[in-house]
Amino acid sequence: MVGPPSAGKLAYVQDHRNLEDLVVDYNSIVAALGGDHTAAMAARNAVLRSLRRGEVDVHRAWIISANPTAESMFPYHDRVVVDPGRDAVLSSVAGTGGGSERAALVHDWYAKRDGKSASTEVVGSRVW
Fold first, then answer.
1. Strands (DSSP E) found in the chain
2. Which residue among 6, 12, 60, 119 sits deepest, i.e. has the most Cβ atoms within 10 Å of its Cβ?
3. Whole-prediction pTM value?
């Protein structure tokens, strides 16, 4: 599951998942860990490593990512792109009070998907 920030990736998963499916969502992990991004990244990476090793016994795992190159990282898996378009995502960001930082992440995601760089610094990208 890949798409820009604020595109509705988690909502898509919630609408399509079975109750026994594993959902790996960075934002949900951050919230569960009280906003600690360092701990959330460590937890997410530990789950992904366990999945890759086949140590997790689930029928299906949904890995949600806003990394613009996430599809290439899982070439042998089913991949879903949730992308309602830049204008719709920016409207969603504005409607939720996401601010200019969140809007910048959206612009950066689209620029990277188009093979361009919106800025010289990597913003919002996650290490797998």
1. 22-25, 61-64
2. 6
3. 0.80
